[in-house]
Amino acid sequence: MRVFLVVATIIVAGFAAAAALAIILGGPETPEPVAAINDPFEAVDYANVPPLRRYTARDGEALGYRAYPPADRARPGSVVLIHGSSANSRSMHPLSRALAGAGYRVYALDVRGHGSSGPRGDIDYIGQLEDDLADFLESVSPEAPRTLIGFSSGGGFALRFAGSERQTLFAGYLLLAPFISQDASTSRDDAGGWVSVGLPRYIAIAILNGFGVKAFNHLPVIRYALAEEARAHLTPAYSFALAENFRPRQEYRANIRAVNQPVRVVAGEADELFHAARFGDVFALAGKDVPVRLVPGIGHVGLTLEPAGIRAVRASLGAMHGNGRGRVD
Questions:
Q1: Exposure on the CB side of residue 65, measured as CA atoms within 13 A
Q2: Dihedral (C-alpha) 251, 182, 201, 118: value to the nearest 10 degrees?
Q3: Which structural domain, as residue segments, surrounds residue 268?
Q4: Which of the 8 DSSP states describes residue 39?
Q5: Chain segment 229-253, per-residue pLDDT in tens
Q6: Residues 72, 100: contact at Cβ < 8 Å?
Q7: Is pTM, for the whole model, over 0.85?
């Protein structure tokens, strides 16, 4: 018995030492800026971006969003837009404006940890983003039928929400070049250079979370390849809590199988972060037949900024709603 206790003590001490080293020294590096992601935003005209509005989340935090009124009275419901990693509601302005022009009432959110919504790069707990979205719907009451559109990591979060017990809060989900999983066949190494993951720290914190230890969830585990001038107003790094929440669940196939609402995917054929041609297979292997529209000549960011990408998004959204105002296929 004494030998067992000694061995167990050594093992525990060894794990604690290894975890401590991983947490202290295993954080993410700062990657070199990726021009394909940074440069397209320099040409965006932000002159007519609507002012920020606020809603109050259940913890009392005032979170930001922008509202785009429809161009006419023939409003086929409303759209809630979730931006991509490191970004904020302004990054979705060209798409938001186009969808409002098509008659939708559009809401672009500053997801907590981004933009004007709380301290950048961190959240209080995993699951808080779902709570925030539910609080937004209760506070603002977007017109039905509601569609949740998420881009990139925001598309991954939209998929997470679509597989949750709250999925019926939206009539449909449109995923734009969504991050599915680092283990999915759609993923490129380091997302094409866009992300640097502090894998030792990430793994150590994940293991500790399995034992209920969440004291280190606020530490950064991911850094993004932002241009120097963009880091001041965007979110260059994510804590473990934010990184784990702003994506699908780790068991992404189970996440996909849990979705019962209509889902569609749109991606650019020339996507630099993901293997766009594999989206259909990823969903099919998880047991879901999901329509996928690939846009020729369009890269990752171009899907939400360039006319061809925006037209494809509008067309897919229209297909979800069919020809009737209240019908979603």
A1: 26
A2: -80
A3: 2-321
A4: G
A5: 999 889 999 999 999 999 999 999 9
A6: no
A7: yes
